[in-house]
Every structure is written in C-alpha cells, then in structure tokens.
Amino acid sequence: MTFELKALKELEDVHLTQVLNYLKAYRLEVGLLINFGCKSLTFNRLVL
Predict the structure, then answer these.
(1) Positions in the chain short of pLDDT 70
(2) DSSP state at residue 3
(3) Mapped to the 3 state alphabet, what secondary structure does 7-39 carry?
(4) b/e map 2-39, b = 16+ CB within 10 Å
(5) What's the predicted TM-score (pTM) here?
C-alpha cells in the first residue's frame, strides 16, 4: 500500500494519476490519496 499526502484546496486528476503511477512502478495494489488542505479531510482509495 502507498500513501500520498497533499495539502491542496482541491485534488485534480494529475494527483490521482501520480498515485496510479506509484502503484504500477512499485507493483502495489492499493493506494490512498489524502488531502488535508480543504475544510474537511478528503481521501481517495485507488485499487489496481
């Protein structure tokens, strides 16, 4: 599993793509993209 932490007002597609590339490069199946930059915590779980 890989974790990507961000502090942005809004996540964009490029951030999702970055996590997917990490999963493929390290041959992992699950990744979490966590954003602390908005009013409430947001996260995306990505699975290959």
Answers:
(1) none
(2) E
(3) CCCCCCHHHHHHHHHHHHHHCCCEEEEEECCCC
(4) eebebeeeebeeebeeebeebbeeeeeeebebebeeee
(5) 0.84
